Amino acid sequence: MNILVTGGCGFIGSNFINYLLKKDSNITIYNVDCLNYCANEKNVLHHPRYHFIKGNITSKDLISHILYEYSIDAIIHFAAQSHVDNSFDNSLQYTTVNVYGTHVLLQASKEYGKLKRFLHFSTDEVYGEVDLEHTGCHERSLLNPTNPYAATKAAAEFLVRSYYHSFKLPTVIVRCNNVYGPNQYPEKVIPKFIKQLKEGKKLTIHGKGDTRRNFIWAEDVASATELIFHKGEINEIYNIGTTQEFSVMDVAQILIDKLTDDKQLDSHITFVEDRPFNDFRYSVDRTRLMELGWQEVHTNFIENIEHLLSMS
């Protein structure tokens, strides 16, 4: 099977490619990535069944050429602008990449007419924030995005669903919690905090630091994505979630304990202005994914952090 992966030099995409190449000897991967600031070609291991193509998903000519030239059987679409903070100041770029780029892929795939599957990777942020008592959004929950990034991801999902209903394109959507692990660019909270502490700087905490996130290890996301790709039902949505939930202050304290001598929270943090709007908490119900047979393996957050620190 020939698979086109978009954004495969980014954090989630590269971890998925490395996982899939080790696990499945019957696939060849073609990775198209524009190599923006947070992508690195070196994130993907050299492999005879891996081919890199530098380019942008907003180019329909390029995408169409790849589909025909390499007889692509399926697309796994990771490519996106994903840094929420930047989306407040540069929202038009997020629309261009996340919405128009997805539309280009869908239209090229429709015209190509030979895809067996189009898997679109989305985010739990499309659901919007929930309170502490909320037990988890399920796949049919109302979408309520509250920042420009999440809104563009929700818009892209509607396009994906429309291409199934209008043209019977075999689409599947994945919505995922916050991912952490190797090769993550230090704009996201865990690698950013690690970098700041190793450079002897204070951790920058938005607002009060009480926002909460569920953090899932990158290889568990890769295994879930691979399972959904093979066993997920067409025109369905699957949440990839974890029970490892922490506040930003929790994460700060854990990393301060691991990387400093005095381990005093107050001496290693500084509070900065919060985002224009910062969702308090996200939570997803992962029942449908578990019913496919998936099990989360890397469930000890502290051990995962220690492993991550040993690699950096």
UniProtKB/TrEMBL annotation:
One MF term in the entry's GO annotations: dTDP-glucose 4,6-dehydratase activity
Secretion signal, residue range per the UniProt entry: none
InterPro entries xref list: dTDP_Gluc_deHydtase, NAD(P)-bd_dom, NAD(P)-bd_dom_sf
Recorded coiled-coil stretches: none
Naturally occurring in which organism (per UniProt): viral metagenome
Any one Gene Ontology BP term: nucleotide-sugar metabolic process
Keywords, comma-separated and alphabetical: Lyase, NAD
Classification via SUPFAM superfamilies: NAD(P)-binding Rossmann-fold domains
Domain NAD(P)-binding as annotated: residue spans: 4-296
The protein's required cofactors: NAD(+)
Name of the featured protein: NAD(P)-binding domain-containing protein
